[in-house]
């Protein structure tokens, strides 16, 4: 149900021994053509991992394969890290018979330890042997890229004679900034060129991955790659293709939110009445990052005052006397004043929809976040991850 | 040891019944002159409480009294909240025989519930009766302004024939933005005018309260007031006065950090090598707000990669390849690469000093934060506060 669903893609996974848990930790995706259009988006963090720098450098509209390891981010490893990322690309390229600059490299895991390159090299050899276009191969790859993820994240869109497959990982250090965690999309749709892939991917990420904010922490390794090979021979309507990529990205994004570290509540924050959509997104993100608000959600506490206090710090235009808030559709604050029954709203369910109106314009956006729970603290304080 | 230490100031506290706990919840400070210079600084939150709006409106360099309640923030209460704040000022003014616009009003507590004005009125009458220049009166006032504070925060500076006294409160929703929680300073120094008070207070807050960031959440009610009456007849050297106000503010700030909600670690983040001091402060604040970093501190985990990932998102100039980090003086990352022994640094103590060099200039600043602990989650999810 993932990246091997579209025609002309093979995938593989293996246990190279990078993760201390002994779980599968390397994956490979190969595009068998006939076309090799690709689009990729990356973290906006100024501190980038070596694989991000390698893949960005070769992001010229064509990738034929993606090599991924989990358990080690290959970030903050200096020149040796850069050499290791290039070697991963070169060895994967040699193993599948393509040029090294046509290989995208991704790593995820702990920052600051050198990659165990002997294990990586053996892993790549094994991956090349394991390559298959079977659906289980995609499933295995989705499992191998997990770190503290509890479940795999995959999605499929079936068009008329063509399809999109996708897999992703990411549960913490997750506040993508115009890119995201690791997400890989494959499609056998026949596109006019890499620009079509880029256009669909960039518009989809802006309203899906970019709008997830689990902990305000943006990774050094975020990467999304879309590979398109035209193997179906079908050229979808452009609007349908853009919508399909958006749907798959949204599906993966919601799976990422649902498996976020320590999550007990899935919280959506929709800001309306902003001056612009961009300002709405900024305001929603400020609320979604506020620890007091997130703790209140964990406690199922309709403490709307924390929403007001949080949104008041957003660097956007608002009418402080006209701000209104609802929880799950029930008004709790109207024109910056408490609504009757506001303290009795039931937030005991797993999903909470928060709507905040800023009272100045037509801008709107939604950001998805989670509560701040004991489990989040436990997961992120108990060991280096 | 607080606001009644300088000559010519009286204080009082009482239990008006605003706090459900039944603890003291109202305080009054009266300046008996002969001078009435005052400076005040306020939250930069766009959503401001009614008492902040009232006090800002009358912030003309002269206050003769400060009336404070805890247990209810009188924020987001619309026009009724504004009327209640004005009534608090008017009743306090009548009780001590001054003009209502010479009274500063402060409230702190839950956002969004109307003040119980009958209790407030009785409380003000009681406060006027309790007024005293005894040191215990200042102690009582410091206790009455507490919310989830566990201990009072007071400070004193003794000059040559003059002094400064101070009290403050604040443990959560604490990321002051050019102002702070509630802090009150009194001095019997003879100043040239309110501008001297303002100059000393604004420079002190910029490097003390403004640099505390417990949870990234900025209150709707932050207020700092300095009252100066010249009762000592001594005009201190200007440089000494500025330094003394800074010392007292820093002392209160460190007491606020030490009593922060759920704190188990007091963490200072010093950024050096920034383009400017302002950029250093911005970068330090980004690290101090990062939940993954704060969880690592709770776990005594020297996970320096989270510092790199956090600082990489700061909107400031940096050389990503020249960033260095030390924990308690031990280098853990040099030129964006792990230092030998970095994973073995002992962070088990209650104080952690983090230093981050951005490698581009001479700008430097320190921000004080805390860890993110189970207690923080517990305190802020268990009930509306």
Automatic annotation (TrEMBL), chains A, B:
Organism, scientific name: Corynebacterium auriscanis
UniProt catalytic activity: N(2)-acetyl-L-ornithine + L-glutamate = N-acetyl-L-glutamate + L-ornithine; L-glutamate + acetyl-CoA = N-acetyl-L-glutamate + CoA + H(+)
Binding site for substrate: 147, 169, 180, 261, 380, 385
Function: Catalyzes two activities which are involved in the cyclic version of arginine biosynthesis: the synthesis of N-acetylglutamate from glutamate and acetyl-CoA as the acetyl donor, and of ornithine by transacetylation between N(2)-acetylornithine and glutamate.
Name of the gene: argJ
The protein, known as: Arginine biosynthesis bifunctional protein ArgJ
GO CC annotation terms, alphabetical: cytoplasm
One GO process term, biological-process aspect: ornithine biosynthetic process
Stored InterPro entries: Arg_biosynth_ArgJ, ArgJ-like_dom_sf, ArgJ_beta_C
């Amino acid at each position: 149900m993932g990246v091997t669903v579209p025609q002309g893609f093979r995938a593989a996974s293996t246990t190279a021994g990078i993760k201390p848990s002994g779980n599968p930790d390397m994956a490979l995706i190969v595009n068998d053509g006939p076309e090799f259009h690709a689009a990729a988006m990356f973290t906006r963090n100024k501190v980038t991992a070596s694989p991000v720098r390698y893949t960005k450098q070769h992001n010229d509209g064509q990738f034929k394969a993606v090599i991924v390891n989990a358990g080690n981010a290959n970030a903050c490893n200096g020149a040796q890290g850069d050499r290791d990322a290039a070697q991963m690309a070169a060895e994967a390229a040699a193993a599948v018979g393509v040029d090294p600059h046509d290989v995208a490299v991704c790593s995820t895991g702990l920052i600051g330890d050198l990659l165990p390159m002997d294990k990586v090299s053996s892993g790549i050899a094994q991956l090349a042997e394991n390559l298959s276009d079977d659906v289980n191969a995609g499933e295995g790859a989705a499992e191998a890229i997990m770190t503290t993820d509890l479940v795999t994240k995959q999605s499929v869109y079936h068009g008329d004679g063509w399809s999109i497959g996708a897999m992703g990982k990411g549960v913490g250090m997750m506040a993508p900034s115009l890119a995201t965690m690791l997400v890989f999309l494959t499609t056998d749709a026949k596109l006019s060129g890499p620009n079509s892939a880029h256009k669909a991917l960039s518009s989809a990420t802006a309203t899906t991955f970019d709008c997830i904010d689990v902990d305000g922490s943006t990774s050094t390794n975020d990467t999304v790659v879309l590979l398109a090979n035209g193997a179906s021979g079908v050229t979808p309507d452009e609007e349908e293709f853009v919508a399909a990529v958006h749907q798959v990205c949204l599906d993966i994004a919601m799976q990422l939110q649902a498996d976020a570290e320590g999550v007990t509540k899935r919280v959506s924050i929709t800001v309306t009445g902003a001056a612009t959509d961009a300002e709405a997104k900024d305001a929603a993100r400020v609320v979604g990052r506020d620890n007091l608000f997130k703790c209140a959600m964990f406690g199922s506490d309709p403490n709307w005052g924390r929403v007001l206090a949080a949104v008041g710090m957003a660097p956007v235009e608002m009418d402080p006397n006209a701000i209104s808030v609802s929880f799950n559709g029930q008004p709790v604050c109207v024109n910056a004043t408490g609504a009757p029954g506001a303290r009795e709203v039931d937030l005991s369910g797993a999903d909470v929809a928060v709507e905040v109106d800023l009272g100045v314009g037509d801008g709107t956006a939604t950001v998805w976040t989670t509560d701040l729970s004991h489990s989040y603290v436990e997961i992120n304080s108990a060991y280096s991850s």
